[in-house]
Amino acid sequence: MKKILKKIHWITSSQLGFDFFVFLKSLRGIPRFLKDWREFSQKYDGVLTLTPCLHDRYEEGGSTNTEYFWQDLLVARWIFEAKPEKHVDVGSRVDGFVAHVASYREIEVFDVRPIRTKLTNISFKQADLMNGIDESLTSGGYCDSISCLHALEHFGLGRYGDPVDANGHVRGFANMAKLLRPGGTFYLAVPIGREKVEFNANRIFDPRSIIRLAQANVLSLQRLVVITNGSTVKDAQPIDNELQALANEDYGLGIFVFKKQ
């Protein structure tokens, strides 16, 4: 029942624009809003219009209990420490991870959707990584560092205007690997657990499927960090029993760090 309620909440809030929990918090905030408005209006002589913000008082000062917060922070820190010559990102959050990296270095972003804003330290290229890559970018490798955070699971599902392709994630992974120079690092974050497709939202991968896909593209696993319950972060050992346990979970986020051989 809990899973069903979570799915209903996701659909109504992110897809239909109605968040029942925010609605309840807003109802709770009406009496306090009216009280504050009366008190303020009695002491203020200027122009006063009403723009109610009813639920903000019940929120935390910022959201730090999501996997997006932790993946963006961790991988941006790793890239800072690694100091690559050229870093390329594919499809990660511009208002999260990409902005973190751009605060201290240049980053090039490939995305199937257009990004028209001109930003310091960020260069954009609209591209569908499921399609073939220009050989001029892959001969000898285009970059020594590449990231794809919470994006590969969407490839081929049509969610972002990309072509429907049941093997889109395989093609996308292979093309990203081609961009990477020998010895370069690939930072990949995807949902892991019992393998399935939640059409057309995302895929969930058995972590062993990702490792096999990497091996097929001459990449070796260097590190695996798993985020569960939004904010529990731990290193996982890539051994059979631990990978099997991760594959039996409903959902987690796996951050894989690969090295190109």
Description:
This is DUF268 domain-containing protein. The chain is α/β, with parallel strands linked by helices and 261 residues long. The chain has two domains: 2-58, no CATH class; 67-260, 3-Layer(aba) Sandwich (Rossmann fold). The chain is built from eight helices and ten strands.
Q: Summed up, what is this model?
A:
Pfam families: DUF268 (PF03269). By secondary structure, the protein is α/β, with parallel strands linked by helices.
Which helices and strands appear, and what pairs or packs with what?
Elements: H1 2-15, H2 20-41, H3 67-82, E1 87-90, H4 94-102, E2 107-111, E3 122-126, H5 135-138, E4 143-149, H6 168-179, E5 180-192, E6 196-198, E7 202-204, H7 207-216, E8 219-228, E9 232-235, H8 240-247, E10 252-260
Parallel strand pairs: 1-2, 1-4, 2-3, 4-5
Antiparallel strand pairs: 5-10, 6-7, 8-9, 8-10
Helix pairs in contact: 3-4
Pfam families: DUF268
Protein name: DUF268 domain-containing protein
- Provide the succession of SSEs: HHHEHEEHEHEEEHEEHE
Give the strand line-up of the largest sheet: 3-2-1-4-5-10-8-9
Reported by name, the CATH topology of the largest domain is: Rossmann fold
How much helicity do the residues have? Answer: 25-40%
> What does the average pLDDT come to?
94
Per DSSP, the total helix count is 8
Contiguous uncertain segments of 5+ residues: none
Shape: globular
The gyration radius over C-alpha positions equals: 22 Å
Q: Total strand count, please?
A: 10
SS-based class: alpha/beta
Q: What is the level-2 CATH architecture name of the largest domain? A: 3-Layer(aba) Sandwich
In the CATH hierarchy, what is the superfamily of the largest domain? Vaccinia Virus protein VP39
Largest sheet: 8 strands, mixed
Proportion of strand residues:
15-25%
Q: Count the domains.
A: 2
For the record, the CATH class of the largest domain is Alpha Beta
Q: What gap, in angstroms, lies between the N and C termini?
A: 46 Å
